[in-house]
TrEMBL record, chains A, B, C, D:
Pfam families cross-referenced by the UniProt entry: HbpS-like
PANTHER family associated with the record: SLR1406 PROTEIN
Gene3D superfamilies tied to this protein: Haem-degrading domain
Domain of life: Bacteria
Cross-referenced InterPro entries: GlcG_carb_metab_protein, PduO/GlcC-like, PduO/GlcC-like_sf
Protein's UniProt name: Heme-binding protein
Length: 151, 151, 151, 151
């Protein structure tokens, strides 16, 4: 029925990632989380925002995921570049219409060969905690997370 | 834990609405749908985009729901005003940054007293079919849909 | 080497489409053309602007192609809807940041099964002539053009 | 036929620059590159994005080239000013709508007298590698590259 090819993650995968990421957040008793999953082309597949999230969480979560896809590495590398190349990261944020948020919590979802199938962005608690949940979500569907740090 | 009050729909309600709306779409064998649920404050609670959706569906679905909340009536009334008051609807679209799409498929979700708890926007098939699914989703959680037509 | 999957058209296909589309334009002695090719996810693969094109041609050509992908049908159907549903098309243009130009000349490139692999947008001459060149380009690589008219 | 004068680079020159720049990238086994060529008036002449490029590469490549033309010196000088005059570069990025990316890889293409005929922007690998390819492309058509460093 569908005329568009799937580009990386399916909606079923995206939904399973969100379920597992949120479960990790509840297990760790984190602040309310917003979780966004994008396909390899940066299109939103699914999003959930837990009750009590502050206002801009969807945009921040989207920006973490989109920023990772925009340059092809996880949020930790984006954060390092925001430190070492401030002018570039400012320009990148402007180019992307704000959709490039350079902090941990934007994590690439890759297959066994390292091909990027999409990205997960989470916002709500400390960036490092957001990232833990994104990693848990990606691993729950058998994919490899890339946080921007060497393994 | 959360410091923000729930403003209308909860995430559990939003997720149940999406599940029921998509089930209706599959039952009717519609094109791939994108479903967005907003709370009473216009904040996104949840979104799902079925595999094979065309590019701008999330933005259109969001615009249908947001437009309904923006003026306080369903998409059918927005569509009528877009006919009778073109200048106003153009300005509204600009004010809203595009997030006010005046066609059927944006439906308010109300409690038994008519208090607006949120809105559902669906895009993917013909507007009238999108709307059928939004209505089904809202009814599935025991709320009253307001499509913009008198009952 | 590349970590992103190809989503529909390759660069080689996009380049061959542009070459053939421009050759058709020269054969018909048209005004200078700008040709844009997008993949199925709306990402630009290649673009060429013939010498003497007026200023906004790349943006218009991009908008024709993107608009077609945004809704999943060719520019002729977009043009019809711009007539019958003005408010919707105005809102769509706003949502898309202007990247949804509802005139002939935006043509979907499909495989034998009708799966959308990308879109071609051309601007420079009359819309109908632009479209003739887009069709020629798509056919030159063995794909099926969808202009928005029934065959 | 065309009513607009050519303003610096022709499309033939732009296409030759892209071909040579990409050949250098393949020779050096770089990441997939996106190459944009602008004329002296900042109008896009041609663009190609190699398969596997990450999402925002066309915008970044365009921003490198446009930023160079915007102030009249190559990306290395832009990068220096982004360090020494942060507020100015932030404002410049805003004024330009994001199209002023202050890093190496934006290179002016000049004639023998130093007259600026256009600019090349490349993104995909390390900035210094991107720049090597832009220089190779410009030299391949007999023009002088200006990277923003004194010779």
């Amino acid at each position: 029925m569908a005329r568009y090819p799937t580009n990386g993650l399916t909606l079923d995968q995206a939904s399973a990632i969100i379920t597992a990421a949120r479960a990790k957040g509840r297990e760790l008793n984190l602040q309310p989380l917003t979780v966004v999953v994008l396909d390899a082309g940066g299109q939103v597949k699914a999003m959930q925002r837990e009750d009590g999230s502050s206002l801009l969480r969807p945009e921040i979560a989207l920006g973490k995921a989109y920023g990772a896809l925009a340059l092809g590495f996880g949020g930790r590398e984006l954060a390092r570049r925001a430190q070492s190349m401030q002018g570039f990261m400012n320009a990148l944020s402007d180019i992307a219409g704000g959709k490039a948020v350079p902090v941990p919590g934007g994590v690439l979802a890759c297959d066994a060969n390292g091909v990027i199938l999409g990205a997960v962005g989470i916002s709500g608690d400390l960036s490092a905690q957001d990232e833990v949940c994104a990693v848990a979500g990606i691993q729950a569907v058998g994919l490899k997370p890339d946080t921007g740090d060497a393994e």
